[in-house]
Every structure is written in C-alpha cells, then in structure tokens.
C-alpha cells in the first residue's frame, strides 16, 4: 500500500514539475488551484470514504461478502452526489480568490485549471471507494500494477498536452482527469472480470441506495478528521498568495509542501496495510 499511495500522489507532483517549466505565474496558479480543490473537494472525498473501513471491515470479518459490493456502491453513490455542489464552488473559484485578496491573474488561471479537474473529481468519487473495496480484501497487487501504468501514462500525457499540443498549464489538469479515469477503468475491469472478487463484487441494487444514509453518517465523522489535518497544510499555500510576491512565494511553498506530503504517504500506506 505504500507504493500504491506514493504512485497515486505522484500524479499531482508530476503535474507541478511539468507546469513549473512554464514560469512562476502558471506554477503559482496551479499550486493555488490544487490547494483549493484539495481543500474543498478531494480531501472531502478521501475523508468520506473512510466510512468504508468500518462497514467493509465488519462485513468481511463476518463473511457477508456480498455486502462489500453493496457498501462500495453506497459509497460511490454518496460521493457522486457530493460532486455537483463542489463543482459549483470551483466554478466561482476566481471570485472567491480575488475576494480573499489573491492576485487576479493567479485567481483566473486557478479557476481555469480547476474547471478541467472536474472530470477527475467524478473519477475520484469512484476510484477511492474501489480502492478501499480491494484494500479490505488485501488485494494489493492489481492496484500497484494499475497505479504504475497510470503514472507512466500520466507523464507522457501531461508532457504532450502541456508542451507538444501547446495547451499549457490547463493540459496538466486534463492529464490528471484522464489518468484518474484510466485508473478507474483498469480497476473496474479487474473487479468485474477477476475470480478473486467474484464473491464480493455484487450488483447495483436498491439496497445500495438505501445504504447511502448509513454511509453518510459514518463518512462525516471520518471526513472531519481527515479534512482538518489536510486543510492545515493546504491553508499555508493559500496564505502565501497574500505575500508581497505571490507568484514566487506560492511557487516555492507549493514545491516544498508537495515534497513533504510525498514523504507522508509512506506512513499513510503502512497504516492502511496495518488496518487491513
């Protein structure tokens, strides 16, 4: 799980590295956008999906294998329901950033970047529960393989979109969205076709929709813990945009925090392995 966590986080790091060669304005804009989308979107999804640890762990321990699939569907439905309000917030990101005192050029580019992350948000709403579904069963190698393939694809896609096609910093957001959905498709194919998941995958039924309320109740508590920890770091990048030279300050801080967060994914992966 350490390798899986690191590989998945490297998508964001690779994007920052590639955009960094475009200059301080694109890098600072992407850094601000990444921070705000993490704070308002991806951290919420990561926190909510923690509810599956309780539900899937109990079901797997009690040998009620079909419930794993049902609970996972409930999680996916819940996270997909949360996505539209998050997208609405991202749509007005530039106004929020300008109101908060951020540089206007950074705010407008950050909003453009966020718009192209919206497909990736919906992909993450499916990917995160699917990952927990496999984690509960200690099915790690398929996630390691898919994450490795996706990272290789992402490096090529990001470089092609940003430089070869001349799309610029927005191409990095497109690459993240493409890569997220590729990971979803690879894992979905494995879950559907592999005999390992035959007894647990189940089908989408009315029970999954009825379980949304239960999952939401558990997910909120988990989300609060994850979000408060995540927000404390991302807030630093947002505050750096208020300094005298926001383009330079934000760029430098985003690089430092990205590297430090990469280190944190190692104990996070070890913790996930211990839980399951």
UniProtKB/TrEMBL annotation:
The keyword Transmembrane helix applies. GO terms for molecular function: antiporter activity; xenobiotic transmembrane transporter activity. The keyword Membrane applies. The chain crosses the membrane at residues 9-33, 39-61, 73-93, 143-163, 169-193, 214-232, 252-274. One of its GO terms (cellular component) is membrane. Keywords: Membrane, Transmembrane, Transmembrane helix. Signal peptide: none annotated. PANTHER family: MULTIDRUG RESISTANCE PROTEIN (PTHR11206). Belongs to the multi antimicrobial extrusion (MATE) (TC 2.A.66.1) family. This is Uncharacterized protein.
């Amino acid at each position: 799980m350490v390798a899986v966590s690191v590989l998945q986080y490297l998508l964001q790091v690779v994007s920052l590295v590639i955009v960094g060669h475009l200059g301080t304005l694109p890098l600072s804009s992407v850094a601000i956008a990444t921070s705000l989308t993490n704070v308002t979107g991806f951290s919420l999804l990561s926190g909510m999906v923690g509810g599956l640890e309780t539900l899937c762990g109990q079901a797997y321990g009690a040998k009620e294998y079909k419930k794993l699939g049902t609970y996972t569907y409930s999680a996916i439905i819940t996270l997909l329901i949360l996505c539209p309000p998050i997208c609405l917030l991202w749509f007005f990101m530039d106004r929020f950033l300008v109101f908060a005192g951020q540089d206007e050029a950074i705010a407008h580019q950050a909003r453009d970047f966020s718009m192209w992350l919206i497909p990736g948000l919906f992909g993450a709403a499916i990917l995160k529960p699917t990952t927990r579904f496999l984690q509960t069963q200690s099915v790690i190698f398929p996630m390691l393989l898919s994450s490795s393939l996706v990272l290789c694809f992402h490096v090529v896609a990001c470089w092609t979109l940003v430089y070869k096609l001349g799309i610029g910093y927005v191409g990095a957001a497109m690459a993240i969205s493409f890569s997220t959905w590729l990971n979803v498709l690879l894992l979905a194919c494995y879950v559907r076709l592999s005999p390992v998941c035959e007894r647990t995958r189940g089908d989408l039924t009315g029970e999954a929709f009825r379980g949304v309320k239960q999952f939401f109740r558990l997910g909120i508590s988990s989300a609060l813990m994850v979000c408060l920890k995540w927000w404390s770091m991302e807030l630093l990048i947002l505050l750096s945009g208020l300094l005298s030279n926001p383009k330079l300050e934000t760029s430098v801080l985003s690089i430092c925090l990205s590297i430090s967060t990469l280190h944190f994914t190692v104990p996070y992966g070890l913790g996930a392995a211990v839980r399951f």
